[in-house]
Amino acid sequence: MNYFVKLNIFGILYAFTLAIQTELMGNVYRISRLTNMPINAVEVKIGLMMLFVFIISTITFLLISSRYFYKGRLRYFLTILWIPYFLAFIFLFSSLIPMANIDEPPPVLGLILLGIYLAYPFYIAFINFVSTKNISE
What we know:
The chain has one domain. Helix content is about 80%, strand content about 0%. It has helices at about 1-25, 30-35, 40-70, 80-95, 110-135. The radius of gyration is 17 Å and the shape is elongated.
C-alpha cells in the first residue's frame, strides 16, 4: 500500500510539472496582456522558466526515483500513470480560469504539444532507468 501511494504521488508530480509547462506555453498572450509586457519579452521569460522547471524537475525526479523506486518493475507504470492526473490538472485550470477569445494560443502550439506528449513517457522511462543504474553501480 505504501509503495502504491508513493507511485501515485510521483505520478501527480510528473503530471503537475508537465501541466505547468503546458499552461505557460499556451498562455503567452494572456500573460502578456495581464502583465503589460511585450510578447517577445514574455516568450523569452517563459522559455527560461520552462528550462528552469525542466532542469530542476529532472534533478528532483532522479533523486527521488533513486531513493524510493530503486527496485521493482512497478516504477515503469509511471509512464502512463501521469496521464489521468495531467488531464485533471488541465481540466481544473481551464475550469478555474477560462480562456477569452483574445487569448488564443499560438497557432503551431498544438504540434509542439503533441510532440511533447508523445516524448514524455520516454522521458519518464529514461529517468526510471537512469535512477536504478546509479544505485546498482
